[in-house]
Amino acid sequence: MPTMIGGLFVYNHKGEVLISRVYRDDIGRNAVDAFRVNVIHARQQVRSPVTNIARTSFFHIKRSNIWLAAVTKQNVNAAMVFEFLLKVIDVMQSYFGKISEENIKNNFVLIYELLDEILDFGYPQNTDTGVLKTFITQQGIKSQTKEEQAQITSQVTGQIGWRREGIKYRRNELFLDVLEYVNLLMSPQGQVLSAHVAGKVVMKSYLSGMPECKFGINDKIVMEAKGKGMSTDDPARSGKPVVVIDDCQFHQCVKLSKFETEHSISFIPPDGEFELMRYRTTKDISLPFRVIPLVREVGRTKMEVKVVLKSNFKPSLLGQKIEVKIPTPLNTSGVQLICLKGKAKYKASENAIVWKIKRMAGMKETQLSAEIELLETDTKKKWTRPPISMNFEVPFAPSGFKVRYLKVFEPKLNYSDHDVIKWVRYIGRSGLYETRC
Amino acid sequence: MSNNGSYSNDRPPSAGETELATDPASGVLFLSDYKKHEDLQQMLDSNKDSLKLEAMKRIIGMIAKGKNASDLFPPVVKNVVSKNIEVKKLVYVYLVRYAEEQQDLALLSISTFQRALKASEFFIPVLLVDPNQLIRASALRVLSSIRVPMIVPIVMLAIKDSASDMSPYVRKTAAHAIPKLYSLDPEQKDELIVVIEKLLSDKTTLVVGSAVMAFEEVCPERIDLIHKNYRKLCNLLVDVDEWGQVIIISMLTRYARTQFADPNADDDGEDSTNKPFYEDEDDIDGEHDPSKEEKIKKTYSLDPDHRLLLRNTKPLLQSRNASVVMSVAQLYHHLAPRSEVHVVAKALIRLLRSHREVQSVVLNCIASVSTKRKGMFEPFLKSFFVRTSDPTHIKLLKLEILTNLATETSISVILREFQTYISSNDKEFVAAAIQAIGRCASSIKEVTDTCLSGLVSLLSNRDHDVVAESVVVIKKLLQTQPSEHREIIIHMAKLVDFINVPQARASILWLLGEYSDRVPKIAPDVLRKMAKSFINEEDIVKLQILNLAVKLYLTNPKQTNLLCQYVFNLAKYDHNYDIRDRARFLKQFIFSENSKLSKHAKKIFLATKPAPVLESRFKGKKRWVPYHTILTPGRLAIMTCLLSLKFLLILL
Hints:
The complex is a heterodimer. Chain A has eight helices and 23 strands. Chain A has helices at residues 30-40, 78-96, 101-106, 108-118, 129-135, 146-157, 220-230, 256-262, and strands at 7-11, 17-22, 50-53, 56-63, 66-72, 119-120, 123-124, 173-186, 192-206, 212-217, 247-250, 265-267, 272-281, 289-298, 302-311, 318-327, 332-339, 343-347, 352-361, 365-374, 388-394, 403-409, 421-435. In chain A, the strands form five sheets. Chain A has a nine-stranded mixed sheet with strand order 11-13-9-8-23-21-16-19-18, with no helix packed on it. In chain A, strands 2-1-5-4-3 form a five-stranded antiparallel sheet. A four-stranded antiparallel sheet of chain A has the order 14-15-20-17, with no helix packed on it. In chain A, strand 8 and strand 9 (192-206) form a beta hairpin. The longest helix of chain A has 19 residues, at 78-96. Chain A is flat and about 70 Å long. Among the domains of chain B are: 1-99, no CATH class; 406-478, no CATH class; 490-617. Chain B contains 37 helices and no strands. In chain B, helix 20 (322-335) packs antiparallel against helix 21 (343-351). The longest helix of chain B is centred in the middle third of the chain and has 18 residues, at 242-259.
């Protein structure tokens, strides 16, 4: 089962072809039109990201009015095709920003060059933006010295595809961002139906040479292994919190075999910004906010809603950008609002009350009450009460994830771990944070 | 591409002119097409790289807009020897494009060149002489991308040379060129296999992925080429680039499936009917007598090479690339002993946080795996709870999975979820949720009654579609349940007056016909009402009215004889030929006294029908591929509604 893509098309929202690249003879020219007619111009909602038309499969992705479709007649690995399309979007974004019709039209040449580089006869190739940027540039002529050319060559063709040799910085610095998204689905009674944290560690490295890094976190398995090896202290008893990571994945630079055997995360980082790891936890999540809804239907033309918002973290910390969205019925005619903190507004276009609070300290409580007037309608349909959703940002990791250390070794150059300036930052954000009401 | 194809691309100059005005890529407005090309030609012929580059960019821009730039072929191709790497790259883009699109033209141009330069002298020097490996490689890439049969020998030569190049990057490119040449001229196969064999034995991670790709495309049947490289491939795998990993893993899966013994051969799959048995299996294996034998067999098995593959692919579950994870999951699904397969579940669940498209692919996968391996995903049940923000197709897949995972212990949680789903706005999803309740009811005996009463209570729902869907599902459930449900049938009979969804009406009528003995007074009355409204009904309902008429005639001819004749007369003159046919066909059973058929009419129509089996549409897919399935919701429903028809067709 060979896996390859027969062709790649880019359309605007009207279905006009902006880019078309066909790699295989079995993809006819009419395939372009087939997709337009059957998917882009189809009335109903898109049913599946894969559409089969006349034995040809179209894998499509839509990003802000632009359709990207990979076409094949073979039974390909669907995940691979989508992964590739997403990479294409990443690459394009990093070259010219937002994916829009105008940007694509203005960058025809560049896109063709890129496609030529990342897809060879339908097989995905090196899609690392960092590497691509070294030899495909937007500025017209880039006069390259012999040295530069040699460097490019060594990077493109080298074993370590993500880093070139001979990088030098006066100040060796690195930044770590631990970014977590808390997802929650809660029942009206306050029972957690499902909760998980999707986190990632983004690293910005400005390090000279070919440094080898070692990254330590408070993962339960690692800590237990450590605890056995070094002392009799049980990590759980010694008071240090540990995090149970359900599952994680790493940037390609991380040596997976080492992780498997020794549970250590070691790698030679790419230069600049990259996503070191992604992880997921489901246990012992500290939910930063709790929404308690109270909805009372008073007769057919009136409804009373009371929402209590509780912050549940250290009082010294501040939650930010808090927004609670309370859906209202479609036949709402007017809303009276009283809130103790922040600003609340009824937005008819969104059919919701949007309650915004700029800042809120931990262990506080506030509430909003609303009187909703309803138009009398003859529709028998009951209002379905969509869940209350909320957004926020808090300066800690809700999963309890902690960076223990990040050590840098560069044996060939004369700087040591101590000379590297390191910054760590934790951000917890809301993913889908919903309370049914 | 035929002659016509290339000619039709030549636009008359006037057409080109009007388009030029709106063409931002050209930048400047020119008077005529010819002039413009003249201008570009001059730029291409100049000595300055910047001018050449500008010209090339504009030409590529034209191509991207679907305009014809083929007449510039000669001046463009001349620049393939340019020292500037950017110009050269753009020339390559142009070359590949036109050689593919307009073979005649390319052939013509190449042969013109051949006279002047000789093709071999033209490309090969670039390939061999250039000290930069990047240029050597991309030249080979372009050369192999030109799909003109005439240059096959040249490409063959180039591939052979490059396969033993010093640079792994060039060797990689050589591997990529192989499938291209093969698709151009399959007769080169034997010669290419020699090259593939050489490349497969390469020890650099850069090359092996591409070599395996070439192998898969050209000679997947030559499994003997893999034998000696198998261990090396396993060991290198972790360090190969992500796309290469996908290809290698899928090849190794195929290899291992053909070369190693199936670790689960003894207990051939299908644990869903018998789930608790397998769940225990890991801990208390020797409980059942047959499983003792199994255990002995199992412990002896697993070839060290087989183990090597499983061990070396496991770390890749941590890969950032979803397709790598999926490939490993596939490999484990097919090759790992049952007790080890569960390790992939976590990784698959993680992929659900990925982009929506990937999520859909993964859910499809889980849906089909979960029909076979329930226990694997049970701990993650909550991950499949539906969010209001999910698009419909994701919701449906999640529902499917939840239904597949339902067991005696988890059913209460799942049913509570389903209940909340029914109040959703999304009609299609609501219908599917009701279907899902029906499936749970029929697969888990403990909850059948609760489900049934729940569904009956839905019959008084305000939403017509909910009622209709419930009717269809209840009908199926009643059929699987031999016990008497008289009240429900009476309730449904009353609904005929209110429901106007044809599917549901048809279901009710079928039920009444089938169980008319339980409601002997009501059924004829319903037939009377139906006879009145016959002409206004949908086809599917009309067919069921005929069915009902026949069945009632057979059980209760005294009361229904006239009604029946009336209905058949109406059907005789119906618009739809299906209904006319059916009427004529059924008439033979009841109204003609002496025919052979009518003697057996009772046996045929009143026989107990096999109950429909409510099961996952993902069940029974023999090959598990990470691939979508064609969605045909409601297919099952239609089929069961027409069961009586099918029944007859089978008989005759």
